[in-house]
Amino acid sequence: MATKLHSYLSPSEPSPSQTASLSDTDPDVGLSLQEAAFRQNQGLSNAVKARTSRSVWSIIAANIFTLFNGILAGAMTLVLIVGSPLDALFGGVMVINALTGIVAEFKAKRTLDKVAILASPTATVLREGKQLEIPREEVVWGDIVCLSMGEQIPTDGQVLAARGLAIDESMLTGESVPVIKSEGDLVLAGTSVVFGSATFLTQAVGEELYSEQMASEVKQFSLSHSELRAGIDRVLRWISWAIIPTVLVLVWSQVRISDSWDWSRALILAVAGVVGMIPQGLVLLTSVNFALAAATLARKSVLVQELPAVEILARVDVLCTDKTGTLTTGTVKVRKISPMVDVKTEDDTVALHNGARGDQITVGHAKSALATLVAEGENATAEAIREILGGHPAIEVTREIPFNSSRKWSACVTTSGTWVLGAPEIVLAKYPQAETVLDRVEAAASNGERVLVLAFSSQEAGEESLPEGMEPSLLIMLEEELRPDAAATMEYFRGQGVEMKVISGDNPVTVAALARRAGITGKDQQPMPAVDARQLPNPNDETAFAKAVQENGVFGRVTPEQKRAMVKALQGQGHTVAMTGDGVNDAMALKDSDLGIAMGSGSAATKAVAQLVLLNGDFGALPPVVAEGRKIIANMERVASLFFAKTTYAAVIAIVVALLGWAYPFLPRHLTIVGSLTIGIPSFVVALAPNAQRYRPGFLPRSLSLAVPAGLIMSTASLLGYAINPSSQGQTVATLVIISTALYLLSLLLRPMQWWHQVLLGAMLAGVAVTMIVPALRQLMQLAWLTPTAWVWTLVLVLGSFTGLEILGRWHSKYAAHHAARMMG
């Protein structure tokens, strides 16, 4: 991003070409209608050209024109031209897989296109001395904009005049406390007026707005990285290098051994060899698994916007979280109302001090005065105090002085004196024992609490001045409400070895206190102090910045750009990073993290760029997401070995028969039944089974270390079976050997065996038996009923293969455990 927030928030001089125009804008009159129209025609208006994240055609093209689809499409076309449609059934995998990807990415595109930070449709500007309400898009550079309480600021600009102006910048900066603005300060589009009113001079419009630059950044499309998909794609790339020479050699060898130079049959057999090498079922199963997991999580109010997200959370080893709206609910609650008396009681009849007429003022009377002061307040603090006071009756007042952010107090005047509610350091500035009270306030602040004081004076207050003789009556301890499931969820992730980091734009003291309440600790299980991000090394000094981010766990006053840099620094150290947030200030960090998690109550921009959205804001929904991801990774590692073993034995068989000049031993339909009974159906069932195994890095090396030698054993046994009688008998022996050994490999992967594993294996064997016994099915699959000698050879080869696979399986279980431990460091 060209404009950084830390510099953007500081007043800056306009460019020389703009100075004259800016000085020409009369703050009391504003622009003329003609000048405003001219600037709008010159493109200096607040209108923003609609931009989409990605075109529909690019999504379709990306999912159709893939290496995987290209291989299968070419093979299917050849079979349909020269052979039977029954031998081209493998093409259905290509269609289903492409549709799954297109639908998922189109949904993500629609969400990204909705990114918008500015929500207010209108703005009030000063034109020719009159206030006009116009569409936000028609505000032009140099306009004088008028603000009042509750409005969203439409453009970036410099304050000309402020009357108690306080701005909520939390959506852009993460700062939960409203920021007081005065003449000369900058205000940013997308922020909101909490108190007061102002006029400001527009200095940036349209695409030059800071909020629009952020939106432009987060609209850039990027796919989540899936270790499963990456591993499969790597295998496909390896296969692609072997396909063309394999096809050519196979076709030539099959034509050469044919008496009639039958090119059609040669092509079909070559396609059978090539298709057998492609783990097409694994590609489809991965997409289907992600889709089913997304549907499962949707029932738990977790929206999965990018399918690989469920896998990624299982791999995360650093979880970065915002504070406001993420660890907290975004609401304020009163922790305690403490009377300023040295008694441990909640009795409202306890006397505090005397009024102007000498009558005693009790705790109950003070609470009634407090209820009166917050009765009309519309902010979160007033609502929280009203809720805890319940039905306390109001007192009669002769005059009210509303809250003003510049003086930081409100008051009501009664016949007995004046009640004042406000910041302790302001209200008690002249109180003789103020230091004692402020010590209590400081202690509360260290616990993340914000303190207000209710004080009484027998004197009458002025409109802008406190009365003399202020005496504290009640201390009101306020705190941001921690999400009820935050602490338990943080404890869960800590137990899983996931490092926690709190990255917030709020006050470091407040952030540290919230982190303690949420149970976020360092490696020594001790609370972590917060680091003020303004003291961090410059992100351009990558080494020093990365070290600071790695060594600390709680950060306050973090700008959006720093959040993004922190994520990148952690990724640069080899971590898989998840980022949670709800404000626009979190959007860029969410976008760049390995997994962005948005709260359902968050901004539209944040939810648009996140891969996961917790619709109910329920932090407790994250552990089930981890469980789904673990199930997918662990189960897919099991079945991947089956698919890669098939790739291995198909490649070996193709090469051997080509070199020896044999007829290819399988028709495509033979490989269809092999794939269905030993991989397709079993892998689908296994992939959906519960599996709580923790994530282990190195999925592909472990899978291949079992699959490649297993494939060699299976191909050797199958080729020996075919070599005995290279005819329909030999084809059937080879097919039965492959099916039997593949099912034994499946049994190795399912250990320790459960009852449903046995049922699954039994059902697949029954499928083989039915295919062989029923003449119609046997004929459809072009299999032969074996002679006694062929049955004996089949049994010998199968038992020999079982022995080899058993030895391999025992070795691999030790290797896999050692490899996972080494990868985990």
Show the helix and strand layout:
Blueprint: H1 5-8, H2 16-24, H3 33-41, H4 56-64, H5 67-82, H6 91-113, E1 122-127, E2 130-135, E3 144-147, E4 156-168, H7 170-173, E5 179-180, E6 186-187, E7 192-204, H8 210-218, H9 227-256, H10 263-277, H11 280-298, E8 302-304, H12 309-315, E9 318-321, H13 323-327, E10 328-339, E11 351-354, E12 360-362, H14 363-374, H15 380-389, E13 399-404, E14 409-413, E15 418-422, H16 424-427, H17 434-446, E16 450-457, E17 471-482, H18 486-495, E18 499-503, H19 508-517, E19 530-532, H20 542-551, E20 554-556, H21 560-572, E21 577-581, H22 587-592, E22 595-599, H23 604-609, E23 612-614, H24 622-660, H25 668-687, H26 699-724, H27 728-749, H28 755-773, H29 775-780, H30 788-823
Molecular shape? elongated
| Largest sheet geometry | 8 strands, mixed
Distance from first to last alpha carbon: 36 Å
Would you tell me the structural class of the helices and strands?
Answer: alpha+beta
Range of strand content: 15-25%
Share of residues in helices: 40-55%
> Helix segment count?
30
Number of strands: 23
Low-confidence stretches: 1-23
Give the neighbour order of strands across the main sheet: 8-23-22-21-9-18-20-19
Radius of gyration equals: 36 Å
pLDDT averaged over residues:
80
